[in-house]
Amino acid sequence: MKNVYCIFLFVIFLSGCNTSKPIANSEKTSPLSNPEKKDKTHQQIAPATCYLSVTDIELFIDSSSIKAKIVKIHGYGAGFSISFHVNQEIELNISDEHLKEIKNQKNISCVISQVTGMNNNTSLKLIELK
Predict the structure, then answer these.
(1) Which CATH number fits domain 45-129: 2.60.40, 2.60.120, 2.40.50, 3.30.750?
(2) Cα–Cα distances in Å, from 102 out to 7, 86, 97?
(3) Which PROSITE patterns match (predicted)?
């Protein structure tokens, strides 16, 4: 009988030591952000694209392309297989519309994509100016 009494007290003691109760309130206490105000450093990059800033732009009107030096790489989208480094020179194929916009600029931020052509030749294409 004494052993049963000790086991009963031990079970009561253990049930009082239940740790499944939350110790502190885990809700966020930070203020809500304004949905109209977006932080550009946390933009999502589209798949198979790269968002970067370039400078020292040389225009090649006859081939609809530009040559530029990378200043900053903002991010890569999933599936973009080429990696760049700062101060690397790249050549981008551009549309006539983009050519007119870039004509007098020395620095631009843009989204580029990798294009595979005939014979598995890969080139970079400017998709959007930021």
Answers:
(1) 2.40.50
(2) 83, 21, 9
(3) PROKAR_LIPOPROTEIN (PS51257)
